[in-house]
Amino acid sequence: MTGPLAAIFRRDLLLAMRIGGGAMVGVVFFLAVVTIVPFGVGPDMNLLARIGPAILWIGALLATLLGLDRLFQADADDGSLDLMMMAPTPLPLVIATKAAAHWLATGLPLVAAAPVLGLFLNVPPEAMGAVALTLGAGTPALSLIGAVGAALAVSLRRGGLLMAILVLPLTIPVLIFGVAATNAAIIGPLPFGQPFMILVALSLMSLVLGPIAAAAALRFGLE
Amino acid sequence: MMRLTAHALTCQRGGRIVFADLGFAVDAGEAVQVTGPNGAGKSSLLRLIAGLVRIEEGQLTLEGGDPEASIGEQCHYCGHQDAFKGSLTVAENLAFWTRYLGGGGRGPEAAMERLGIGHLAALPAGYLSAGQRRRLALARLLTVTRPIWLLDEPTAALDLASQRVLAGIMADHVASGGLILAATHGPLGLPTRELAIGRAA
Fold it and tell me: B-chain residues within 8 Å CB-CB of A83?
């Protein structure tokens, strides 16, 4: 049971790292979004510090969704998905493994880049940790929710745009509680723990529900 | 004794009935050549047996197989798409599928040697020619043991020498009690029974 999952985890990571893989695309996009905001908002340091965590979160959300429609589409295009669905390994576990590899390749670099990019936005140093912590807790939920959209996109053919429309509303709670937790850490008055716990709960919920829903979507896509 | 039986199968794809009321039986140690005009549903039949296309009506049963596993889990499906990633090397691609599908056959190196692609092991699969990719896909048949082989145009893009190697591999599989269903227009190079499907439409 662990052999097949370890194999797919390793393969997806390798693919993401190789030329043409999506590992660095997300970080570069994140960098682009965050760097243009100060130019648009103007040199108001206080305003930037206030909206900084939200910008970082929105950037991370969009960067995560950027390549997510390829999560199953690439495997569907070359026939890998057929063989994966024929194998005895349960499909939800395969999907959870693919989402984990996706998160490690695209989500974790965003978490690591967020404190550095926070400098551009005049985010106070004590808030950097909070931003990284909330992104670390929240981005797994984005990968897992996105997997459901990616699975639907495969079964509906050319559903890249549809995926964004389907997935964005579902990610809004993650965004709200991610930013709320970060703001709570910087300006209060709410305690940090409360929204952060909800954020963790959202990630755990999507860990259970996401792969099952995505597997159902892929099976539904069978003609 | 393994026996794959289809009874009154109907297959529908994209709202069109591809074939209807199809019945046949394949016994262990038998190679069946599925023939028919283009669009008759040869590929659809193989995908249907693999569990990749829903059975609209009828039954498909496997006697003497693993009762715990579905029919698809006991099949090798070798379709038009070969499921290899261009940015991974030949050896990495084959090693992945061998581990993912459970192995049980001969080692990847031995399988690549048998098909004459051993010297390509370190090359990214994206640089392979069509025939070499096909041979890599066929190597999967050797590294992972499955009793039923579903081969869609297995000889496509293969040169004559490779076709003979493939015929030898299929003969070995049949001799060891395996089942083969191959959709093809040309001869396979081993004794087969013909299953003609499709109306002339």
Answer: 77, 83, 97, 100-101
For residue B47, CA distances in Å to A35, A107, B149 come to 50, 36, 12
Nearest CA in chain B to A74: B85
Instruction: Mark out the alpha helices in chain A (DSSP H runs).
Output: 2-17, 23-41, 45-66, 70-77, 80-86, 91-102, 108-118, 125-156, 160-186, 193-220
Asked if the Cβ–Cβ distance from B92 to A11 is below 8 Å, we say yes
Angle at B161 between CA B159 and CA B166, to 5 degrees: 90
Tokens 């069978």, residue located: A222
The total of other beta-carbon atoms located within 10 Å of residue B8's CB is 11
Nearest to A86 among B51, B84, B87 (CB): B51
- φ and ψ at B107, to 5 degrees? -70, 155
Cα–Cα separations (whole angstroms), residue B88 to A14, A72, B84, B127, B132: 8, 17, 8, 10, 15
Classified as helix, coil or strand, B36 is: coil
- A72 within 8 A of A94, measured Cβ to Cβ: no
| Low-confidence winner among A91-95, B104-108, B111-115 (lowest mean pLDDT) | B104-108
Is A4 close to B101, i.e. CB distance below 8 A?
yes
CA-to-CA distance for A191 and B32, rounded, in angstroms? 70
Chain segment A16-34, per-residue pLDDT in tens: 888 766 778 888 999 999 9
Task: Determine, for residues B52 and A15 on separate chains, whether the beta-carbon distance falls below 8 Å.
Answer: no
Q: Can you tell me the mean pLDDT for B125-136?
A: 89
d(CA A20, CA A42): 36
CA geometry: angle B145, B92, A8, nearest 5 deg? 75
Domains of chain B: 3-196 (3.40.50.300)
Q: What is the pLDDT of residues B133-165, one digit of tens each?
A: 999 999 998 899 888 999 998 888 888 888 888
**What residues in A contact B45, CB-CB < 8 Å?**
none
A119 to chain B, minimum CA–CA distance in Å? 36
Q: Using an 8 Å CB-CB cutoff, list chain B residues near A87.
A: 73, 100-102
User: What number is the ipTM of this complex?
Assistant: 0.87
